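Below sits our specimen:

——
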Amino acid sequence: MSDQLTSTQAPTRLVLEGVPRLHFYEGGPRCPEDIILPSVLRAYLEYLGDADLGCKHCLGHNPNCKVFCSYSFFMGVTGAASFLSWKKGWHGDNVALFYMSEDPAAPERHAFAAIGYAHEWLEKQTSPDNKAFFRQRILESLQKGLPVIGYGLIGPPEACLITGYDEGGDVLIGWSFFQNVPDFNAGVEFEPSGYFRKRGWFQDTHCLLFVGEKGERPPLAESYRAALKWLLQVARTPQVKPSPDAPEGYKDRANGLAAYTAWAEHLLQDEAFPAGEEAVLKAHHSVHNDAVGSLAEVRWYGSQFLIEAINFLPYPMAEDLLHAAALYAGEHDLMWQVWNLAGGNGNPEAFRFMPDPAVRRQMADLIHQAGEKDARAASFIEQALAMDPG
């Protein structure tokens, strides 16, 4: 225990300054980073000064918007770039990446394998005195200068960054995508830097992920090969088969290519969009709109990831990967057409368009078109892998 700090030995307050902020897109010249896990990993490596992954010259759709290449890299290696999910009914967690595999930690596992860092999960059931043990482990990591990736704390069980503590650990400090969202931030306070301050954090914390020692990073060619195989598996797995004790959210869930059909079929359910019932319309439109936004973003950055990959993989793979990248970019553009059918991206009155069957039929048709592009993209990725002499 001599090399470990107990909570009584540690200072009552410690804050790691300069950890990049996490947030949903707010406009401006920076490209959107709305997919939480890849953004958290990008920010973490940027803080460590190790975010040199990917190409150095890609530009986003907007000429003034530079792609943060490590974000697109993490979009690829986690599997997010080819992910789509739709559970029967109208569920707000369709965009949660942990549903891409029977192993909820698969996105993180693939990401850390690609960057060469050790990592360790801490689940609540691992200690009879969880709160004290969680607090102790958080303090130890922060004393080493390493933020902690927490799941939950504020809002859904999505990743956030714990960058400090106060009052001996009674208050945790950091960044969360949900810290400024009124539905989730009741009682949250803020540091002058903008970091959140969260009391009573343990009850809202689902698990913790600790980043360990940096090992030897695999050759990028190896990481891109592994990512392409994983992307193909994610796209072509119509339904994951979790363990019997897996959460209810896994049941009746279509993934990958099958999710396009499930999504489009739900849009054609007239009874799901009753005119005049504003609460129902808002709720169902929100689930649909989250899918539109997520698909647009992951496929756009997926296209950038595939373009980056050709810089590190054998030349014979390049043509097929560029075809796949173009198809991913085409899916992004189709989602903008879906938005435009309801008054454009970000229209607060978009839900009012949904009772019109003609509008929803057009949306469903565009989603089917996106699914066709995705199937073709998967075929090109498969062909590229077949051309790999390695």
